[in-house]
User: Fold this.
Amino acid sequence: MSLQFTIYFSFLLFLLGLFGVLYFKNYMSHLLSLQLIIISGGINFLGFSKFIYQETIWDKIFIFMGIISIYLLIFLILFYGYSRINDVYKEIELGDYRLFKIDKSDWWGDDCL
Amino acid sequence: MMQNQLIITIIYYISIAAIIIFTLLSLLLADKKKKLLYFSLTLLFWGILNLVLLSGVLFFLIYIVIIIFYILFYMYFCYEEFYRCDEISTGEKELCNKKVIRKKLINKSLSLVLPIFICGGIGYLFYSYTLKFFREYNESGNIQIMNFSIFLEELYSNCMIPVILLISVLFISVLWFIIVIGKNKKE
Amino acid sequence: MTVCNMDLIFSVDKISPIYSVAILGFAIFISIFFGLSKRKGIKIFIISLFALSILSAIIMNFYVFKITVVYSNSLFNFGLLEMIEIGVFLFGALNILLFISISNIESSHFVKILMLFLFSVCCIIFLIISRNFIVIFLSLCLSTISVFQLISSLNNNIISARRYILKFFLRSSLSVILVFFGFSLIYGATDFKNFMQIFESDAISNPLIAAGVLIFGIAVYLFLFIFPFQGPYLKLARRCENSSLPVIWFLYFPIGIFLFLKLDNIIFYFLGSNGSHMSILFIILAFGCILGGNIGAVKTTSLRRILSFIFLVFIGLILLNYAMCSTGLIGRDRVDWLNTINLILLLLSFLPIYSVLITIEKKFKTDSLSNIKGFARTNKYFGVNIFIIILSLCGFIGTIGFLSRFYYLEPFISYAAGSKAIKLGLANIFILISLTVAFIFLVVNMLRIIILLFKSSQGKYLSEDKSYTGRNESRITFPRFYYIYITFFTLIIVISGIIGLLEILNIDIGFLNFQITDFNLSE
Assistant:
């Protein structure tokens, strides 16, 4: 367990991610490749802070803020893509999911199908 | 003490091996569900590696965000698969033309070989230029593991404005959700 | 050493550059109360409020600089260069507000779209003044998020643009993630938290710093869609809604440019230490971008694509500035000056031209080059103004475009005149070829547009029964405001061009406290 091994391993992950971005046409493989680069960046930060530096807080804050903002960006892009590609959102929209809904058939008479 | 160190080292190497295996599986498999499943395992072992690398409370803080993201991603993907009316064409119709097949083969091999060369080249350059640095660095003595109170104190004292910015982008994103989901009627 | 950030906002003895952001934030806060309104009066009120807030932010920006001159703490840095960048950027933002208002005022989400726009302006100002790595990265990411939200909202009803918006911003997210990785490598070399500290220390010679900066450079390269990665940008430019293109040019691209300018000191260090390798790299990248952009513009008949390609040519010129500095042709101050003047030239030229072109596009429903045939004959006033602006892009004497051309060619002119200040080596010859290609092709592209503007269009415009209707029928009606708008830009281009020319000829004007052609932007 050494710094050299950790960093070379994280760089290998980075190269795998880079390969995925360059090779795969599929959007999911592309996204997973992006995640690999994020993972390798995180390992770099933590590896350097464990093996080299005594003060280890700054990099944790960087990782925290960085990952939240990157994942927010990726989530928004994905949401935009999925919100329009199919008709799913219409079906969700038509349903009524209120906690309390006044319906006559629940209180009086027959239930209409 | 020695036994604890040994356990940590074993966990370290197991998680590294698992990350590599599940990463390769998730990239190479064609089935999207399996891709997501194996990549979530990659993330799980990444989280364990973070714990080994003394991330402290950060493990919980970022892992929750990543898990939520993955659950939503998986849900979107399942809805797309289940409710989609028209079939997604996954492949082109195979033509018997030898020239077309040969051209496709050349394109595919080029698109495979070029990234391998680029990544290999970058990897070699990185290895050769940083070898000296890794031989000469000085390892630190005391290690401080971050807990939640230290984290909050640091955020308040140094990073309040970035935090305010982050929170405000979440509020602004609500507006965006309303625009994207809602119907756009022109007056 | 920690600094309490609450002092940044609440201290009364030191005025902060955050105040201009605070003004914009206050405008967003007021507009929240009107966010769901669809009444036209409210929309006009919000437009006025936002325009006033941007103007106030510009004034506050200059005022802060006048009071503090240089402001620096652990998170932010504000000096002359930042003041100019914010001023130019806010001027562009004011114009984008105009474009968004004209194109989207009928939309039911208009107020929300404006709020997204103003928020993106705030995030980009944070990027300009940021100093600490956390703030740089966070403001980069949040700027990208807010511009994505703005563009996707503007193109909500355009089905053909959606796929390309996804591709465009997936590329941007890759760039942001590469920046994250780059910072992780820089962290390995040193735990300094800003580029100036790294530049002034011994850590700059660490290979991890070089690796991190290289990853940074690749990230910015991808972010700016420089050749050969220009595909998603051009596809989106062709399909997007009218006001989205100025958003991409003057809100999205400045993010990448400002991020690149943060690496100024370190790039100059590497240019100095690695001399020939870095020079060759910058020359090749710049030449590729300039050549590709110009050839692309010549080969297309779509007006949007022509402008989009020419925009990439100017990005290539920014790279060429660094190449020229590395070979000793120009000094570092001149690089900053040329970067600024090119951005100002783009702003002053593209905005008025685009405003006219979208009106033409609305009439003909396409953005074909043939739509402007005979435009200058039927709309003489606009034709003359567009002609002057295009001459400025060509570098005609007496316009602001001439100033940037002159200082690009000045080293070669002085060499030809017998000066021995520069050596005309292979690299400099290649730079000269790149400049020649850039300027000649640019002139060719612009001449193509000028010829079409003044070409006779008789017989082109027919009524429904296919009879010739005459020239007056093809006249496009512009709102009165457009006359003032285009005249304003033409006057700035001509007046600043003339002032600059007088400075080059060493004729003292007397009433300006500064020189347009020669001011030190570096601290």
In short: Chain A has one domain: 3-94. The first helix of chain A runs from residue 3 to 23. The two ends of chain A are 66 Å apart (CA to CA). The CA atoms of residues 76 and 93 of chain A lie 20 Å apart.
